[in-house]
Amino acid sequence: MSASAATPCAVLLGHCPDRKGINAALTRFVAENEGNIVDYDQHVDAEQGVFFVRIEWELPGFRIPRERLGDAVRPLAESFGMSWQLRFSDVRPRMAVFVSKQAHCLFDILARVQSGEWRVDLPLVIANHPDLGEVVRRFGIDFQCLPVAPDTKARQERAQRELLSRHGIDLVVLARYMQILSPDFVAAFPNRIINIHHSFLPAFAGARPYHAAAERGVKIIGATSHYVTAELDTGPIIEQDIMRVSHRDSVEDLIRKGRDLETIVLARAVWFHLRNRILVYNNKTVIFD
Amino acid sequence: MSASAATPCAVLLGHCPDRKGINAALTRFVAENEGNIVDYDQHVDAEQGVFFVRIEWELPGFRIPRERLGDAVRPLAESFGMSWQLRFSDVRPRMAVFVSKQAHCLFDILARVQSGEWRVDLPLVIANHPDLGEVVRRFGIDFQCLPVAPDTKARQERAQRELLSRHGIDLVVLARYMQILSPDFVAAFPNRIINIHHSFLPAFAGARPYHAAAERGVKIIGATSHYVTAELDTGPIIEQDIMRVSHRDSVEDLIRKGRDLETIVLARAVWFHLRNRILVYNNKTVIFD
Amino acid sequence: MSASAATPCAVLLGHCPDRKGINAALTRFVAENEGNIVDYDQHVDAEQGVFFVRIEWELPGFRIPRERLGDAVRPLAESFGMSWQLRFSDVRPRMAVFVSKQAHCLFDILARVQSGEWRVDLPLVIANHPDLGEVVRRFGIDFQCLPVAPDTKARQERAQRELLSRHGIDLVVLARYMQILSPDFVAAFPNRIINIHHSFLPAFAGARPYHAAAERGVKIIGATSHYVTAELDTGPIIEQDIMRVSHRDSVEDLIRKGRDLETIVLARAVWFHLRNRILVYNNKTVIFD
Amino acid sequence: MSASAATPCAVLLGHCPDRKGINAALTRFVAENEGNIVDYDQHVDAEQGVFFVRIEWELPGFRIPRERLGDAVRPLAESFGMSWQLRFSDVRPRMAVFVSKQAHCLFDILARVQSGEWRVDLPLVIANHPDLGEVVRRFGIDFQCLPVAPDTKARQERAQRELLSRHGIDLVVLARYMQILSPDFVAAFPNRIINIHHSFLPAFAGARPYHAAAERGVKIIGATSHYVTAELDTGPIIEQDIMRVSHRDSVEDLIRKGRDLETIVLARAVWFHLRNRILVYNNKTVIFD
């Protein structure tokens, strides 16, 4: 994480079948065009025979202008059969947050956006309850309340997607939004919807995980942030963390302590996403940290 | 944990329906008989309405001799409908360890017994493979190899139980013993068989949890020690701990790192048991730490 | 932590020279007056020979009215030479927060107060910079900016103390307030000023601890919340936590990651204080958690 | 960590002033000689302007035979002003362990060596007390007791160094060896002596850290493994970890709990060293994990 925030960089993320010479070809490409690599991270999954890479290099002084960079990378990547993405560190993504009634994750996100810790725009918060509207509007952010019931769900999702489209949203963060998105919605934002689940998945998937944890008598509770896929609570895990609990903790204590876990685990996942540090492969994440 | 190891103490563990006056009655009982309480820990589970208590007081100077102490406690406990156990800190329990081929938990246990960290006798190790026999015998401990196959399991369990009986075993520790004990065996040692499972239960119960963890792409792995009950991997959890992992860790790395987790989580559970700090209620543990 | 938030309780915190019969006398006092104990926690420091206790019992149904409770406890406590405090769980303390320019701890506190997680009133924020005024005022809280320079420090402290007095403040929280309070100020709020220091004390006391940590090449960073005493960074520690770092983390990364640590470690300390769970003795804390 | 243990690999570790093209030159060198890179990890310290790298590639199929590899790497490294080391994964280092009376770290090391977890030979244990001799000899390892007193220290160090020389020792592990080595001794094994200190350095350097921790009332204790340098407890930190403690823990509890910390933190450091994953620069470590 040594790149200065001030210097704009290109970031290439890719994966392909492993073979000799990929590192050499990629680094030569950057070097021949006078690029200064600030971060180079590669990983080989020996069991699956897959090569993963993230290269970040400075744009100033690089011979290929950014608008032609994709065209320049393409033949190189294709020669290795590489799936790849190109990002630029000075582009500010646009994020929407979905909430329900609980404020802790939302509040934390507002703080990180407002303080400039995160390089992101947050123009839109969508809720299925009106409770958090006042706080959101204090920050000058558009707050849209779209209550969801079984018979209105399809219609409300259309409204949600129209709002996302109108605001040019790149990333959706479900900050304890208690509704399940339809497969269509999810398919429209592949690896661009981040959810926080209040257990260490795969334990206690589904509803009321703290109650289930108390019932089972576990000595640790956890939280899991993941990309949302069509199947509930089974998407690629981005980050997890845990906290020790004991018999002295009632369900209410677990809920209270868990809020802090949820907040931090969601924030770390969004951070990795915003910094272009996540590759998804085979329903798992490679986090180039 | 302020009791000096040197002074013999009585330990009363109990639970009963919660009501007013239990603390007063128990502490008065000790005080009236000139007992010096070195540790008093109580817990009320408000949801279930259950009172849990552990009292540890010094035996020297206490007016009731230890052999009559049970009789003295009984009417008091019965007046509250209390389930109770009485232990003495200077009694050395007798422990047997069951192993298979893996050495790490066994080695750690041998070290703790040999160094005197644990106040316990370890006269017997039972294995279903001969591999660890040489190490065990170096420590002057009886090593019995009883290979288990589907058609010999019942016979071998009889042999195991006879060995346990002959050695006067109080506590059985399954130190990565890869066999499932029969319900009959388990019923003969209620809350006296401790197992280590190599996942953070309830996630990844059953076989090959590290492979399942790698497959799911979790960011933490765990280990769980629990009392063995008739149903696999669902007994009362005593202790759990976790370790961060990443995409860089292969299944072999998880297995290697997990060994350290298993070792420490099992050791902590045995420690709590040996110090008479565990109460089991409703398939959960209260750990008076 | 099983006491229902709804039922008002009395909390007795005390410490005295250890001897036989204290537990019995205290629990009898509650029982004889028809009190229902919801939490009883005691600790004996065997090395120092000191007995510590926290008793929490329900006020409804208790025979002694709360306004006479102190008088009733006094002779009992005096008979053991006990230093004691009596608190009531339904009293809302009044808290002031001191800040400088950094927002993360303040934001977190605002969220916990606003959501009702903390039972406390927050009428006043004092800052030595104007930066956070806008956010604080959005929450309807009095924001007072009192810049401090060497020659104005004494005068500004008088202004601060007058504000605290006018708002009836019980607890001062230094949420990354970068000024040192005078011994006089500190003496006026014994064990009622909580600070967050951005290192695992006693390592890296003083200024710029993250720079010092990076310079030393540590593999963990920490944060420490403590009561403020006249000597810098040496007051009784309430809570600490840590985070793993690596050579990949620049000083800026440490500062960024550390913010999350500071936030949570300060919040936990304030929580313990507000719940009347801290006893200070010999410059150390007993946390009845 | 994806390299198969079975395939012999070359490992190049190096650091040099950062500039463009280093990655490209190094990876081209491997690719042009038909090397298959199994792990490539680089790091740029932007503040110091230093480039760090670790490359691991398979020897089978590589065109340059291992005995000529150093000569082949030299001009390339020199062109960048790189300090470098070349290692081979199939070479078994030879390790000596220094102990005093405490067994926990030694026991753990014996278990890891015996089980084959560590690829290392352990022909020699040196002690300043005879206590652990019996255990060591059970494993067929040479145990040499060399008691150290102020007036015999120089002579005993000569004897120690002669033993190390005779056994062809590459790595010395101080497993709670309570003596300080002379600067001469240390200078003879630069970055090849690993010590475990029982605190989270730089807190509680020097003697009796658990007593100091209890005196200060910290809420976490730690352990630190580091390379030994001439100045006490200030060498490059390799690994640290911590454990939560509370007022309930006496000094004896801290010592007992700390043993587990010391054991694991030392083991992780030795593992990194044995896997050629540590670069030392500016009294800090880069751990390529």
Any overview of this molecule?
The structure is a homotetramer of 289-residue chains. Chain A is an alpha/beta fold. Chain A has 2 domains: 9-88, ACT domain (Alpha-Beta Plaits); 94-287, Formyl transferase, N-terminal domain (Rossmann fold). Chain A has 8 helices and 13 strands. Chain A has helices at residues 22-32, 66-79, 104-114, 133-138, 153-166, 183-188, 209-216, 251-274; strands at residues 9-17, 37-45, 50-58, 83-88, 94-99, 121-127, 142-145, 171-174, 193-197, 220-227, 237-244, 278-281, 284-287. The first copy, chain A, has a 7-stranded mixed β-sheet, sandwiched between helices. Chain A has a 4-stranded antiparallel β-sheet with strand order 2-3-1-4, with helices on one face. A two-stranded antiparallel ribbon of chain A has the order 12-13. Chains in contact: A-B, A-C, A-D, B-C, B-D, C-D. At the A-B interface, strand 11 and strand 13 of A face strand 11 and strand 13 of B.
**Run of helices and strands of chain A:** EHEEHEEHEHEHEHEHEEHEE
Query: Which strand order do you get reading across the main beta sheet of chain A?
Result: 7-6-5-8-9-10-11
Say how many strands of chain A there are.
Answer: 13
- What would you call the quaternary organization? homotetramer
User: What would you give as the CATH superfamily of the largest domain in chain A?
Assistant: Formyl transferase, N-terminal domain
Second CATH tier, the architecture of the largest domain in chain A = 3-Layer(aba) Sandwich
Number of domains of chain A: 2
Low-pLDDT runs of chain A: none
State the distance separating the first and last CA atoms of chain A: 7 Å
CATH class of the largest domain in chain A: Alpha Beta
Class inferred from helices and paired strands of chain A:
alpha/beta
| CATH domain topology of the largest domain in chain A | Rossmann fold
Largest contact between chains: A-B, 34 and 34 residues
Give the count of helical stretches of chain A.
8
